[in-house]
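Support request, please re-run this one:
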Amino acid sequence: MNAPPLVSLNHVAKVFANGVTALDRFALDVREGDFLSLLGPSGCGKSTVLRLIAGLAEPTSGAVLWPGAIDADHRGEIGFVFQEPTLMPWASVADNVWLPLRLRGVSRHDARDLIAESLALVGLEDFAKAYPRELSGGMKMRVSIARALSVKPRLLLMDEPFAALDEIARFKLNDDLLRLQRELRCTVVFVTHSVFESAYLSNRIAIMSPRPGRVIAEIAGAVPYERDGDFRTSVAYAELCRHVSQVLTRSMTDGRLG
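Re-run finished. Output below.
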């Protein structure tokens, strides 16, 4: 909890061209090594926060700061996983993973080892020549994660990546994601609507108010943070889920802090 901030959102507001205020007085530090979940109702600005961090949008006021950084452009340090796998249907799995490297001018030949390594990390090393139509929904999402990992991100942004999957696939990918973070030592910001998912994955949970979104509570994950197969049925997990649910419910009604 005492790790230095990797990126800070300093009293950020975001107003869209149609006049909708997505965020107001949004303040949050993302610390090195965090698995930080953003939890809140639909339309509260969670995805907007990710886009601001990624540099895909600019705040109307306030600032997105990278303390201690020298380079002003941080897009090269970021991997982004969207709600949908967004794979190119005409391209093989390997060529889909190659895409962000290709956009950086890395040839297919030079990217070969990075592609293979990324697919191995998500357990798809045997599917490099397959096409998206031949994959299950969970496998497609694994390809999307491998694509984000191919650039060796310092920060991985994930926008409800498992929302459309069945519960069995979702649980498996949750476990795989925690393993990947431990292996890669990257920082993760994860958007979800699920109390249970946020409580399982996170060492920190930031609960957001209804639009215009702001952080109204931060909750620490259960101890010990490293999860195993028994954690989902543990008393600590049940108590954390109950607490997060209570704070989220209050945020929907009167905005009081948890």
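The chain has one domain: 5-253. The chain has a mean pLDDT of 91.
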